[in-house]
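<instruction>
Derive structure tokens from the sequence
<data>
Labelled lines for chain and fold
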Amino acid sequence: VSDIIWEWDIRNNSLYWGEGVSTAFGYVNEEDIPKAENFKDFVHPEDYEYVKNDYEFRLKNENEQFWYARI
């Protein structure tokens, strides 16, 4: 199993990707890896509304830390 580990620090607008993202998607260059600014472009289309609503919920409820989405 190749897991893609990522973490988005919403407060600081920084996005961390584990090594699995390069393996799974073939990213060779650092600049090809999705950034926080364009993260929504990489969300699975069927999940977009869920992700958008959940993102807004988490901005209001800081105790909620985990979030899952397909990319």
Summary: The chain has a mean pLDDT of 76.
